[in-house]
Amino acid sequence: MGQTAPAGKIYFLNTGMSDCLLLESAGHYALIDAAEDTEYPKNKPYLKYRGYEREVVDFLLRHCRGENGRVTLDFVLGTHAHSDHLGGFDTVALCEEIDIRQAYLRPYDARRVFVMERVCWDNQEVYDEAVGAFRQRGVPICDDFDGRRVTLGEMALTFLYCGTHNRTRLAYGENVQSVVTLLEAGGARAALVGDMNYKAGDERRLAPQIGKVDLLKVGHHGTVGSTSARLLRTLCPEVAVVTNKRLGVFPDVWLKLRHYCREIYTTVEADGVCVEFSGDGTLRVTTGIMG
User: What top-level branch of life does the organism fall under (predicted)?
Assistant: First the structure.
C-alpha cells in the first residue's frame, strides 16, 4: 500500500537569526516572513547585516514551481515590521517568476515603539519597501486580520494579533505588535508565534486562546523576554524549532525548552528544518533542507 500523502509541511529555512517559514499543503504554498535583507539605509551603516533574500528566492524556485513553471504563493504574511522578518519581501515580490495572490501585513506606526528603535532601526524603511513591492506587482494587501481564519490546502490557519489588546502606556519595541499564526493540519497543531514575548502580557493573554500544540516556533529567536514557563505549560509542545543558532538562544529559554519539549531544533545547526504533518496526528521532522 502507498503511504498516505501528508496533510502539510512547514519549512523553517536556515536564514541565520531571522525568520522565513514556507507552508505547503495539497499543492498550495504560503510564506510567513522573508528573512533579513542585505539593504540598509545609507545613513545607518551599522545595520549592514548579512541578507538572505537570494536564499529565500532560490528555495522557492526549487520547491514550489507549478506545472506552468512559475511559483504561486496563495498568501504571504509579514508578522511585524523588523528587517529580520520583512527584509526579503521586496525581493520575493519583485521576482518575475513568483506570483503572490494576497499579502497580510499590519500597518506600521512608529509612535508605538520606543525612541531608540524608532530612530536607530529601519522599521519604516523595510515596511515601505515591502508595501511598495507588493503594490508594484499588484498584490492586494490586507492590513486588518486579527482573528481571521484562512485555509491553505488541508491546513487551517488562524491569525492572532498581539498588539490589539495592548493598553499599556509604555512604548515597547515592534515585537509586541507581532502576529501569531495557529496552524492545524492532519490532527496536529502548531503555534508560529513570530517575535511574541511577555513584555506586554501577550504570552499570558494568548496562551489560553492557542491551547495545547504539538509544534512551537519559538518566539523572538529564543532570546531574552520570550518563552515564559507559563506559555510552555499551557502549550506543552513536543517539538520546538528556534530560528537561530544554538549559542544565540538565551540559557534560561533553553532550559525551559529542554524541560517541556521532547525535541528542540535550531535552524542554523540543522541547516533548515522541515516538519511534516503526517495525517494521523504525528509529526515527522527532517533536517538539512537547504542543500
Answer: Bacteria
